[in-house]
Amino acid sequence: MISNHSPDGFTILLVDDREENLLALEDMLATENRTFLKATSGSDALRKVLKNESIGLIMLDVQMPDMDGFEVAHLLKSNPRTKDIAIIFVTAISKDEQYVMKGFSEGAVDYLQKPLDINVTKAKVNVFERLYRYQQDLKQSVQKIEQINKQLEKFVYVVAHDLKSPLTGIIGAMSLLEMAAENPEGIQDELLEYISHSKEASFYMANMINSLLEYSRTSIDQQTIEEVDVQELVEQIARLLFPPKHITIQIHGPLPVMRTKKLKLQQVLQNLISNAIKYNDKAEGLIEIGYRDFKNHVEFYVRDNGPGIAVDEQDMIFNLFQKSARNPDTTTTVESSTGVGLSILKLLVEEQGGNVWVTSPPHQGSTFYVEWTK
């Protein structure tokens, strides 16, 4: 009986030059979740192993005409792709220690003597099946750890990026304080305004740090979903990014109130608004923020009148380490750009089941759209 392959199945390759031995061994070992492949020669066995990555155990006859089991085992163990597959030698030749040791030296993990004892054979195969499953669980754990490490790398970048803008504003306010100490006249009103913004930015950063700490302690599925007033959130972001005097931010609101993961939405909108400020090259910069409501999602947009993005770059800017000059007709660019911001933003949006894209007619600025699932 050959069972259907499944993700939880266990595939055994049976190798013997006699068809009746293969049938008897398959009948002996058959269970619901096992799949059997059969080979009648060493070369046939090698071909099947290379074509089937799911093989967990090989029951390998030693005495075969074209290539004996020792040679097959040696070739399998020499190949990085197949070296970890467990091999049990099945043989009718001498039980002398020299033959047994030769089998182990070629990579066998066990030895069964013909005629096979049914109970012993079943018990040994069951043990190797359990070991195989433990090995697969370990591989999945390693893959999960690697995935978590990548998420942590992304997390560290987002934290640094999101805290940088309000911190820059606070540093600017401190510079004004130094100027006020030397020449207190003429900047009092501006100074008071910056001090007020700096105080608010400090509270904003403290709340963000608390949110980030909470985020780091919980999985994606466990992160808090809360009611978010997006209008209030965007107004706060716009203030605390300290836009230059020549840049106007217009919010076409009121923006919606929705239940979502606030930190994620805050990171996405802050990155888009920050980029719109950062890359704007106009004497009178304009940034517009709005949304459209759909049945299952909200579509936010951040539009600017900056230099725009070349058509051939619009699909690439969301790729990791891909930079955009933003204006192909000028030398305008930002040297400190790492090319990772928009790729991470895209991941943040896709984690919520949404999408992000950009439209940018030549020399008419850019509009970034974010599809955010309700």
From TrEMBL:
Family matches, as Pfam families: HATPase_c, HisKA, Response_reg
Domain Histidine kinase: 158-374
Substrates-to-products reaction catalysed: ATP + protein L-histidine = ADP + protein N-phospho-L-histidine
CDD domains: HATPase, HisKA
Alphabetical list of InterPro entries matching this protein: CheY-like_superfamily (IPR011006), HATPase_C_sf (IPR036890), HATPase_dom (IPR003594), His_kinase_dom (IPR005467), HisK_dim/P_dom (IPR003661), HisK_dim/P_sf (IPR036097), Sig_transdc_His_kin-like_C (IPR004358), Sig_transdc_resp-reg_receiver (IPR001789)
Any one GO CC term of the record: plasma membrane
Source organism, top-level taxon: Bacteria
EC number of the protein: 2.7.13.3
One term of GO molecular function: histidine phosphotransfer kinase activity
All copies of domain Response regulatory, residue ranges: 11-129
Modified residues (4-aspartylphosphate): 61
Gene3D superfamilies linked: 1.10.287.130, 3.40.50.2300, Histidine kinase-like ATPase, C-terminal domain (3.30.565.10)
UniProt keywords, alphabetically: Kinase, Phosphoprotein, Transferase
Protein name (record): histidine kinase
